Sequence to fold (280 residues):
Amino acid sequence: MSQPISPELREWLVAQLAAGHSVPALRASMRAAGWHDSATDVALAQLEAGFPNVEVALAPARTEMPGPDLDGAPLYLDAGDRQVQVLQTMRYPRVIVFGNLLSVEECEGLIAAARVRLARSLTVETRTGGEVLNVDRTSDGMFFERGENEIVARLEQRLAMLLRWPLEYGEGLQILRYAPGAQYRPHYDYFDPNEPGTPTILKRGGQRVATLVMYLQEPEQGGATTFPDVGLEVAPVRGTGVFFSYDRPDPVTRTLHGGAPVLAGEKWVATKWLREREFK
Ligand SMILES: O=C(O)CCC(=O)C(=O)O
Ligand SMILES: [Fe+2]
Fold:
């Protein structure tokens, strides 16, 4: 977990950058002075990657974040009723691809329960705090209540243990179906702090801090989850899932992501969003 940078170091870095020193030069002099702080590395990497907002890049990050315990580089993680595979990890942005997350029966059960309740997907309209039809997302979707049925409840317990985040901090599971041609254009899952509707949304559970997209049915072609900032594409393989977290509501997290167009077949996903506090 990345620790916050001290205020003194932040001030110093900002001053050095303002004085025209380059990021690689700063990194080199810090290394030479014995600095091997992961928080500083992350901040410098952000600056180097061209993120314009120095203050945001160097601001203290949230320290408590959801995510599995990857100490010792395990290949499998104990999620209570299931041994989940660690297939891929990326440090920045924080992305983890899990295998063996759901059984085929669980995938099919969720689809069957959701199918009868699908409506054209709504996304939260941050301008007003209400919900609207969104042209950026051409899938159909619905939400389960937390613990609504046996499969949902079992899955939520598993995810709480795997991601070490209280079940009560999670939103209800969202199910999306993408028909051929459907897609979800690149977006951030956190709520934009600059939108007037955001304070209303944040009253219930605070910010989103992480997302887990689970693949319930794979299309025949297309439908990867893409992270355009880093050129990553995660294949939508049934029973697997991609987790990503964002320690501040800012593009500097590089968590821009989308669902690429489905070219053939149907793609179904379940999305679990984690909030910073209890989501009542
Ligand atoms: O369908 C996908 O691959 C991405 C879904 C997504 O971004 C979301 O549900 O917020
Ligand atoms: Fe998303």
The first helix runs from residue 7 to 18.
